[in-house]
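Annotated sample (chain length 36).
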Amino acid sequence: MMMALKEEIMATTWALSTRIEELDRELALWRVTVGK
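Output written by the structure step:
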């Protein structure tokens, strides 16, 4: 039971960090666009 929960938490954490990286890139791109 604990292993399944741990794997689920790890998968969720990985998905979140991937999403955060995507948002980070979008924000950087937006700053470059607006900064001009």
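Annotation: The mean pLDDT is 94.
Annotation: DSSP finds one helix and no strands in the chain.
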